[in-house]
Amino acid sequence: MYADEKSPAPKAPSADRRTVKVYERILELFEAEGIKTVFGIPDPNFVHLFVAAEQRGWDIVTPHHELATGFMAEGWARLKGKPALAICTLGPGIALASGSMMDALVENCPVIFLGGQRARVTERRVRRGRIQFIQQEDLFKNSVKWSTSIEYADQTDEIIRHALRVSQSGTPGPVYIEYPSHVIQADLEVPPALPPSAYRLYEPGADGEMVAKAAELIKNAECPIILTGHAVQCSRAGAKVKELAELMGCPVLQTSGGNAFIEGIEERTFPYLFAEVGDEIVAKSDVVVSIGTEIGEPIHYGRGFLWAEGNTDRKWISIELDAEAIGQNRPIDVPLVGDLRTVVPQLSAALKDSPRAEHPDLARWIQEDKDRLAALATQDFTTPSGRMHTGQWVVEATKAMPKNAIHARDGGGTVIFTWTFLQSKPHDVVWNQNFGCLGTGLPYAVGASIADGRQRPVLFTTSDSAFLYHIGELEVVERFNLPMVIVVAVDNAWGLEVGVYKRTFGHGNTNEPGVHWSKSVRFDQIAEGFGIQGKYVEKAEDLGPAITEAFASGKPAVIHVPIDPVVNHGGNENLDTPNYDRFRTWYAEGTQ
């Protein structure tokens, strides 16, 4: 209702219905989906909702920047396997959060943004100079899957349910709902909230004939493989994929976005593009089962680069929730359209009576990859400056990572080094693959830890440039006493961009404007100002023990590690960043 319209007289509630406020009903509808966490900074539009949420036992996570609100929600959704709720105040709040909407859209993450707004009677006036005001809904339509508004109180159920439906249908993604102030205190007479299966398609399965066809391809293959994307982690379906991999007797290739290892099949899992073993596996493969991946640019659409060698007529089976995605990037021989949480067990059931023996090369591939990692960890890491080599920073940090840890990543050059030098096999990884946005790491890590119930340790490896984006969220880490150790590689520069200058103009031909900054910053001391442990580590042999000690303390910590700036940007000739030539093949099939 608009503020200047009269509301009809309320009806007496029936036996199975009761009267609640709109904000209470919103909470009930999310609770029906198993969601009891809210991220955001409350304002007058949301203080009633926050009080009610606290009374209902919700986790209430208030960051210090609205952009971090959306990133925290995204980290939560990735670990929880459910849509996340992000609250943003009207005007500047939702405007600052809009970058995280775009990130969630490109990262295929179901975040529901609930944005406050002035009452419609005020918003629709022909006025100038209104406080904290923009026309919001139209601004965000291209950044979300669906943009709408709760115009009338009795629309609450249908709008929240459709937001939950849209965010999880087809390719997952964000939704924006406007929450004008004229509906906040309205009363609703409502029945109990419906379960998800009563109002949306819930974890649909694939066509039975297509499942049988896929099973026959796998049974008759010489070298079937599984290619996993990050939806496997986000849907919490690792155990189901493990069963399928064992029935297929096959290796598992990870996309760069889907690089969380599945418990129990870590050794038979290899990175696409950044390990020699992966090259041979691609070349020998004659059937590929892609699960939870867009088959996008970073894997060359499944048809270029490595896929152009060996069995180029290999067959593709795609397990994909979004029917419109089938065949967009490459032809698909057997589409299995449905939720991977249902479809993977369907395929396993079709193979149970005739499981395949392990591929004869699997044991050799496993040993060769172990040898590769060992060789990387023991190479000569001497640097001209005497500061730590970025590769050694990755080796020592990830060797010390607890086996059950969540790994959060951020940065440019440091992340490229991580692909190569990673010494651990974490079961959960959160980082920004598709959008390539710096600064997501700390909010992602916070959201992931909250989703995990603050139980498992979190190792966050980041660069100085990326860490500075949302360093204020250290207060949230301290407030919740998150079991997080943050290891910051410090080269006092935008390292990857220094390399771009050298590659573009040659070493010494420019001053590299804008990419070098103060050498006086001390992240360990900043952490102490937030009430968090701070450590300064210069020697590689001290880094692992410092991480182990920090985790053992049960308190969050920030470890400042000076790294060699020349190594970090690839050397003065910009030729030495590991696998950089392969990383460049991601972009427009190698043409930038």
Automatic annotation (TrEMBL):
One of its GO terms (molecular function) is magnesium ion binding. It comes from the Bacteria. Residues 211-347 form the Thiamine pyrophosphate enzyme central domain. Keywords: Thiamine pyrophosphate. The keyword Lipoprotein does not apply. Residues 412-561 form the Thiamine pyrophosphate enzyme TPP-binding domain. GO terms for biological process: isoleucine biosynthetic process; L-valine biosynthetic process. Its cofactor is thiamine diphosphate. One of its GO terms (cellular component) is acetolactate synthase complex. Gene3D superfamilies: 3.40.50.970, TPP-binding domain. Residues 21-124 form the Thiamine pyrophosphate enzyme N-terminal TPP-binding domain. CDD domains: TPP_PYR_POX_like. The keyword Lipid biosynthesis does not apply. PANTHER family: 2-HYDROXYACYL-COA LYASE 2, THIAMINE PYROPHOSPHATE ENZYMES. Belongs to the TPP enzyme family. This is Thiamine pyrophosphate-binding protein. It comes from Mangrovimicrobium sediminis. The lineage of its organism: Bacteria, Pseudomonadati, Pseudomonadota, Gammaproteobacteria, Cellvibrionales.
